[in-house]
Design a protein that fits this description.
With 471 residues, the protein is α/β, with parallel strands linked by helices. 40% of the residues lie in helices and 14% in strands. The protein has 15 helices and 13 strands. The protein has an 11-stranded mixed beta sheet, with helices on both faces. The protein is globular and about 70 Å long.
Length: 471
């Protein structure tokens, strides 16, 4: 019964299945397999009851001839999306027991459409990580090999879709947190243009980098989802009033004639494993046979992406985590004074990676170091953005591998710097705020690899069209 979203929607409309039947199927799959995968967190009777009530409501909407392609389709919510009345923790001990009194914009839109929330998916704590190993609920395992990570931070969403525990899932991408796990788990992962989707009601990590996207079975499914979740939001000042097209109509056929594709040579020197390179070269040849015009390009600012990201991101983390002070959120304390209360709540509530980024960011923003680090990083960010803008005057899309290798074994990267390097190919697009998508493009010894397609600002239609053709 686990089929692409579009097919499930057609079956719901035709009466072949009901949303209740579909929801029960996915709930059963979660109960059977989540013990070994750990893709869903806080899953229990309340979650199941909530999902079935939403499914019944969806069936009534469909019966009345209303709704859209997402009506009645069960999805997973990454555990940073505020769902009113349901525990939402960002997989951090400091938010254990927190039930939001309101819903995020995208969650509210999906509820109004009649989508079915089947549970919250695992993530690195406050999305800080590349393997879900910083989650207070433990690591999510890769459905293709349980010894390996599903990636992160949207690892729970990627594993849930790949294993057939949900039809699709919401995720967030700050530096690669949708695209990297999508590549590791063999699904489609879409990072949108910064501001294309609303961040209101989504727990922040780095506010100038965070984007809201989806993990789906196909690019066509991603196009359907984006059509319904994108657009301006009065509650989020970073969402411009840019028209949202019907992305599904832009996908076209398996033809790339006239499409200009750039191959940034810097990405091919980032320690690519032989199998990843081979699969990437196969994708290039496939595009060439479809009529695409392919040419190599140089993006020299790429080499600075990692350094820029790990100055800007921790700096914004330092600011965003300040709200978790043990007074409004976190465990109660018997501290004798305010400072002691802060210290106790944050020591117990935050994991090592969150503390590490807070310290790095606070240092980078401190007097005497702001100009040397943060301001300089922002200048390089501007140069990176200009470099991409220039590239897209010549090319429609840019193609790279999504990751330099397949999913690594859980616990094998104990050095934080090694973990940071996992996003080396996805970071530049995040720094520039451009859209990018990862689609499966083969396997190495049974483990998936991903192809990354980047486009200009608000060029989601272009990257989805190429993704569909090469899938």
């Amino acid at each position: 019964m686990h089929k692409p979203l579009k097919k499930l929607s057609e079956e719901l409309r035709s009466g072949t299945i009901s949303s209740v039947e579909l929801t029960k199927y996915y709930l059963e799959e979660i109960n059977k397999r989540n013990g070994e995968l750990n893709a869903f967190v806080n899953f229990g009777k309340e979650t199941e009851k909530n999902a079935l009530e939403m499914a019944k409501h969806a069936d009534s909407i469909i019966k009345n001839g209303e709704g859209n392609e997402l009506t009645g389709i069960p999805l997973g919510l990454k555990d940073v999306f505020c769902e009113k009345g349901m525990e939402t923790t960002a997989c951090s001990n400091i938010l254990k027991g927190f039930k939001p009194p309101y819903e995020g914009t995208i969650v509210a839109r999906l509820r109004k459409m009649g989508a079915v929330f089947i549970g919250h998916t695992n993530t690195d704590e406050f999305t800080m990580g590349a393997s879900t190993e910083t989650s207070c609920y433990g690591t999510t395992h890769n459905p293709h090999d349980l010894k390996r990570t599903s990636g992160g931070s949207s690892g729970g969403s990627a594993a849930g879709v790949a294993a057939g525990l949900c039809a699709w899932a919401l995720g967030t991408d700050t530096g690669g947190s949708i695209r990297q796990p999508a590549a590791y788990c063999g699904v489609t992962g879409l990072k949108v243009t910064y501001g294309r989707t609303s961040r209101y009601g989504v727990m922040s990590m780095a506010s100038s980098l965070d984007t809201i996207g989806c993990l789906t079975q196909t690019p066509e499914d991603a196009a359907i989802v984006l059509k319904h979740i994108a657009g301006h939001d009065e509650m989020d000042g970073t969402t411009p009033k840019v028209d949202v097209p019907d992305y599904s109509t832009l996908l076209g056929t398996k033809d790339l004639k006239g499409i200009r594709i750039g191959l940034p040579k810097e990405y091919l020197g980032m320690g690519l494993k032989d199998g990843v390179r081979k699969n990437f070269e196969h994708s290039i040849e496939q595009a060439r046979q479809m009529g695409a015009e392919i040419k190599e390009i140089s993006l020299p600012m790429t080499e600075h992406g990692l350094a820029v990201y790990y100055i800007i991101c921790p700096s914004e983390v330092s600011a965003n985590m300040a709200r978790y002070d043990g007074l409004r959120f976190g465990p109660t304390s018997d501290a004798k004074n305010l400072v002691e209360s802060y210290f106790e709540a944050r020591t117990k509530g935050f994991g090592d990676e969150v503390k590490r980024r807070i310290m790095i960011g606070t240092y980078a923003l401190s007097a005497g170091y702001y100009d040397a680090y943060y301001r300089k990083a922002q200048r390089v960010r501007t140069l990176t953005l200009r470099e991409f803008d220039q590239a897209f005057k010549e090319f429609d899309v840019l193609l790279t591998p999504t990751t330099p290798h397949v999913a690594f074994e859980c616990g094998s990267l104990s050095d934080p710097v090694q973990m940071y390097l996992e996003d080396v190919m996805t970071l530049p697009a995040s720094i520039a705020g451009i859209p990018a998508i990862s689609v499966p493009n083969g396997k190495i010894d049974g483990m998936p690899t991903g192809l990354q397609i980047m486009g200009p600002h608000f060029g989601e239609g272009q990257i989805l069209k190429v993704a569909q053709a090469l899938s």
